[in-house]
């Protein structure tokens, strides 16, 4: 699938593939789930904090037909290996590669008492792999939609990301938060979602400037091997900081770093070891930045929003230490272009992508110039493109 959004051609081509692979006879259903970029609120979700992501016009689509024998036959046009598995006795299997993500979702749904079924499925996506735009959450949310669609089951839309996150935590073994699955399931065109990951309250915030401001993605084209283990390490460090701060402040009701505001943190941060102080500082002040970003977005104040993005990046680089040379260079490259409001890494970090907010009329110039500058700084051909804010997952 090409860079642009899905179209009738994609559906026709997938239908043909499906028939080639699995034969004809039954009516094929089509589903899609989008990738995301996070505007601001990074590494806050598993700390019960605030996030502000958007779903984008990069997605995974699936052509699916129900089977009656609890078997899955799955193929992805993005990977060489086909995956076959039974719903019975499912467990993580390295040799099943990408297939573990949808299989994990099937297992978690069944354990939760939701009707599931076997299926023949063809997947096809245009989310750059390893690009940090959460293709894994997209395929999880897509699978949940496929199973609900094929069995004719309805559940609360908000339950879908909860199940998908559970699949990633328990079946895959990555201690991620809920942001990626949530935005892929519940995104809305031309809106960001403000989600409080502690209470799970959320609201769609109109991106009224969508016609005047472009979101540019810059893919560093690097992905660090240590990403999963370093991510899980950050989760543990935050938990340790919570333990220490709870004791220090004598507030037994503190469950997460998000139960402490910037002011209270200033009064007690010196009680923490240096490393944990930096981690907690990032999370607590990032929550505050999300709140400010919402006000800026609601006032169409791109200058303030851009400044917040830069502060967020600096904090992720210096305090949370999840950036890398390439991400810093891509942000620098964006900021070397005229008119750019702000830029930051997006997602977990350690490679992947950064975003920039840019006046629409400057978009092409920024894409061209930042690509050149990034190449000059790193020797790498990055990938730069504008994205639009898309709807969350559903049947096509
Ligand atoms: C990854 C995880 C999310 C979130 C981000 C960092 O994308 O899947 O849950 O923690 O990193 O904000």
- The radius of gyration computed from the alpha-carbon positions, rounded to a whole number of angstroms, is 21 Å
Structural class: alpha+beta
Strand residues, percent: 15-25%
Bound molecules: alpha-D-galactopyranose
What CATH first level of one domain would be assigned? Alpha Beta
Distance between the termini: 16 Å
Globular, elongated, flat, extended or rod-shaped: what is the shape? globular
**Helix proportion range:** 40-55%
Averaged pLDDT: 95
Tell how many strands the DSSP assignment holds: 12
Largest sheet: 8 strands, mixed
Structural overview:
It is built from 11 helices and 12 strands. It has 396 residues and is α+β, with helices and mostly antiparallel strands. The protein has a domain at 8-208: Ribosomal Protein S5, domain 2, CATH 3.30.230.10. The longest helix has 25 residues, at 274-298. The chain is globular, with a radius of gyration of 21 Å. It binds alpha-D-galactopyranose. Alpha-D-galactopyranose (GLA) is lined by residues 42-43, 45-46, 134, 176-177, 179-180, 347-348.
Summarize the topology.
Blueprint: H1 8-22, E1 29-40, E2 50-67, E3 71-76, E4 83-86, H2 100-111, E5 118-125, H3 135-151, H4 159-172, H5 179-186, E6 191-196, E7 202-206, E8 213-223, H6 227-249, H7 262-268, H8 274-298, H9 302-318, H10 325-335, E9 342-346, E10 351-359, H11 363-378, E11 383-387, E12 394-395
Parallel strand pairs: 3-5
Antiparallel strand pairs: 1-2, 1-12, 2-5, 2-6, 3-4, 6-7, 8-10, 8-11, 9-10
Residues 42-43, 45-46, 134, 176-177, 179-180, 347-348 line the site of alpha-D-galactopyranose (GLA).
């Amino acid at each position: 699938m090409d860079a642009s959004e899905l179209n009738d051609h994609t559906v026709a081509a997938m239908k043909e593939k499906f028939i080639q692979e699995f034969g004809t006879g039954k009516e094929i259903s089509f589903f899609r789930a989008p990738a995301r970029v996070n505007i601001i609120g990074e590494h806050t979700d598993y700390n019960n904090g605030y996030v502000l992501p958007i779903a984008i016009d990069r997605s995974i689509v699936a052509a699916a037909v129900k089977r009656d024998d609890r078997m899955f036959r799955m193929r992805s046009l993005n990977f060489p290996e086909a995956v076959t598995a039974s719903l019975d006795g499912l467990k993580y299997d390295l040799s099943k590669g990408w297939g573990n993500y949808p299989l994990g979702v099937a297992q978690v749904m069944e354990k939760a008492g939701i009707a599931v079924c076997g299926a023949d499925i063809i997947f096809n996506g245009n989310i750059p792999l390893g690009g940090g735009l959460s293709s894994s959450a997209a395929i999880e949310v897509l699978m949940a939609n496929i199973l609900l669609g094929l069995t004719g089951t309805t559940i609360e839309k908000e339950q879908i990301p909860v199940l998908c996150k559970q699949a990633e935590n328990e079946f895959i073994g990555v201690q991620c938060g809920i942001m990626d699955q949530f935005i892929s399931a519940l995104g809305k065109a031309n809106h960001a979602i403000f989600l409080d990951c502690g209470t799970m309250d959320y609201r769609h915030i109109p991106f009224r400037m969508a016609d005047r401001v472009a979101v540019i993605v810059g893919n560093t084209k690097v992905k660090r091997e240590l990403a999963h283990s370093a991510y899980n390490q950050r989760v543990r460090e935050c938990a340790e900081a919570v333990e220490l701060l709870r004791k220090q402040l004598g507030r037994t009701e503190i469950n997460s770093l998000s139960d402490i505001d910037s002011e209270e943190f200033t009064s007690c941060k010196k009680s923490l070891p240096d490393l944990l102080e930096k981690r907690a500082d990032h999370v607590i002040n990032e929550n505050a930045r999300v709140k400010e970003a919402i006000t800026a977005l609601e006032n169409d104040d791109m200058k303030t929003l851009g400044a917040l993005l830069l502060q967020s990046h600096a904090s992720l680089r210096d305090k949370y230490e999840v950036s890398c040379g390439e991400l810093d260079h891509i942000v620098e490259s964006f900021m070397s272009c005229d008119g750019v409001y702000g830029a930051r890494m997006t997602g977990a970090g350690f490679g992947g992508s950064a975003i920039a907010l840019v006046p629409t009329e400057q978009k092409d110039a920024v894409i061209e110039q930042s690509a050149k500058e990034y190449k000059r700084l790193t020797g790498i051909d990055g990938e730069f493109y504008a994205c639009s804010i898309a709807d969350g997952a559903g049947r096509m």
